[in-house]
């Protein structure tokens, strides 16, 4: 697991190769295995593989979503906020589990932030995606995960990247590295 975490990086350039059906099925299994508060499972997912739709989704943000136009697949992570007040946590956990499962299958991925972002003046990114994908109003859009076989190399994380100054023991201020 740690090896996978050191190696996981956001991948925004993808080879044109399609993702195999069994890998898409496994991504869906990973999404459905994600934990949720009280086991409510408010998460909903849309698997987008249609090129025209991916093109449209790439315009969901002024900056930060353009790479989706070159992705063979995108998973839109939604949640029914009427079911639970921790839907953002539930949706986020499912999203990162999808990304880690993708990495474990040799796929690259990158998160596109949707919640609290705007597509253009007067329209939120969420409203834009709801229109493009015909999503009912009550469903919140947390993020979109672009996926595909990597066409860019990113450096693996090293020990030097680990910001131990953010870790404390027992009380805030007691530095982890002084104790371990
Ligand atoms: C909550 C969250 C929102 C993000 N939003 C975007 C985004 O909108 N567009 C994008 O290209 N990358 C986005 N990213 C990817 C981050 O930029 C990336 O994870 C960060 O720079 C660290 O790089 P790494 O993933 O390669 O370790 C997001 C990541 C997270 C966790």
Automatic annotation (TrEMBL):
InterPro entries: Nitroreductase (IPR029479), Nitroreductase-like (IPR000415). Its cofactor is FMN. Residues 7-58, 62-149 form the Nitroreductase domain. Keywords: Flavoprotein, FMN, Oxidoreductase. The keyword Oxidoreductase applies. It comes from the Bacteria. Pfam families: Nitroreductase (PF00881). The keyword Flavoprotein applies. Belongs to the nitroreductase family. This is NAD(P)H oxidase. It comes from Dehalobacter restrictus (strain DSM 9455 / PER-K23). The lineage of its organism: Bacteria, Bacillati, Bacillota, Clostridia, Eubacteriales.
